[in-house]
Every structure is written in structure tokens, then in C-alpha cells.
Amino acid sequence: MICSFIDLNMALHLTLENIHKLYQIDSSTKMEGIVVLRQTNSPDIEIGPKSRLFDGLLLGFLIRGTMKVQLHFLEYEIQAGDIAVLQPQLMIDTQSLSSDAEIVTIGLSLDFMAGFPMMRELVMNDRVRWNPIISPSEEEIVLQQELIVLLEHFYQKKESRKKTEMLQYLVATMMSMITEKYTVLADKSGVTKNRTHELIDEFYVLISKYAQQERSVGFYADKLHLTPQYLSTFLKEHTGKSVLQWVDQIVVLHAKTLLQSTSLSIKEISSELNFGDTSQFCRSFKRVVGVSPRNYRNAK
Questions:
Q1: Are 37 and 105 in contact (CB under 8 A)?
Q2: Which of 2, 72, 142, 272 is deepest in the core (most CB within 10 A)?
Q3: pTM confidence score
Q4: pLDDT digits (tens, 9 = 90+) for 216-243
């Protein structure tokens, strides 16, 4: 059975937890922050244009067959060997797929990626957002499919002290191959953005640059020559998050990276992220994550 980048009859808002529940993944292989699924199509499954959002990064590898999807208002024809790189909160509409389609989907939580700046950059990369489908060369396809098999084997192996770390480095290798592909790709020709796409694009550029320094709706609205109310309503409608929710997500992602990959104190991280004081940073972090920065670091 295939559900095309983990979709079909799932809820609009996808999380790793409801993916695990839907597919009844063996608890012995269930990992915090990552899911790896290989699926093949079945003629008794009706695939409709269901809209979904995933609160993490999805990598879709079409091993065989073809499919048509709409990603964030643009339609794409995907061929065997193609890779779909789907950033958080990207709208995914499956239009159709061939009867012989086979897909490997890797779902990654933001927490899983937090310790790797290169992964974090891929999440917010403007080129990736508007060019989510890449077509590797035959040689690259062979290498990537070998790496996928290796990832699957490590994902399915029994739990061990180093299993998460090993998976992170294997995923980082895959991300490096994907990132390298993007560096040599020119902007796709023939892709027309309407004003909706342009606004979302411009907002993403702004928060990727200013989120650590500027956290007011007014700042981003002024930059985009919009009213704060219009910008918040627009983003909520088209991305599922308000201005402040997106800013909080980016700032917290930076904070998690610093907590996991540096020995900076909570006070130093607070200063690095331009909070007025440590208590303000701790309150903001706990509001988004549910635990204090100290407890988050200790839990890792």
C-alpha cells in the first residue's frame, strides 16, 4: 500500500506520532524524531487530492513509477528517481500516481535536525521551497538508493545507545548530497509566482535573516508594506501559522541547536538570541517547547 509521501486519509496536520499510529509501526523500530517508510501502490486504494501539512521535513524518493502532486499551489510531475524535498508546513496535495509507484519517505522532526546547522538551513532555504523537486543523475540515483537501503537497515535495527546518532549522520550525508544538487541548479524556468507566492517567499527571506533580532509583527509588515493584521491573517490562512508563530519557531530552532551542539550557558544563549534577559528567554522557550531550556538540554 502506498499513501504518497505519507498522506491519503490522514488528518490535515501531520506529526510523526500520528504517522506511527496510522501505519502501526513496530514499537521496536520506532525512533524519536524520524520515520522511514517504503511503500508500494495498491489498486484498491483511492487517492484523492487531500491537503496536508507536516510539522517537519519530508524527503520523498520515488523509486519507481510516476506521480502528480501540488506543492504549495504549484503542480509537479514526478518521475522515477526524482526527490521531493518538502519543508515544514508546506501544503501537499496528491493528484495521482501510477499503479507501479514505489516511494521511500523519510520524515524528520525539527528536533532531530536541530544539532545539524546544514539541515536547519535546508528547512528555510528559499530555492528549496520554490523548487522542491530535484532530478539526480543516474550515478547520483544509484548512490542515493544505496544510502536509502543503509538508512532503512539502521532504522530497523534494535535500539542501541548510538542508534539515533548514527541515523543523524546518515541523514546528514543524504542532506549533503541533496544540498550539493541545489548548488548547481539554476532557477527553474517557466515557474510563475503569483502575489501569494511572492509574499510568502519574501516573508521567509525576512524571518530567516531577522528572526533572531526582530520579533514584532510590525517590523515584518513594514518591510512588506502591509498592515500587521493583514500579514498575520494572510500567513495564518496560507501557511497555518501566524507571524509570531513562525518567528518563534525559527528562534526556538536556533536555541535548540545551541543547546544541543554547544556548551554555551543558558544566559549566553539568551544573549546570543537577543532576549532582554534570561528569564524572558526561558519563558519563551517553554511556551513553544513545553519544557525549560535546561531540561531540554539535560534530556538530550
A1: yes
A2: 2
A3: 0.62
A4: 999 999 999 999 999 999 998 887 778 9
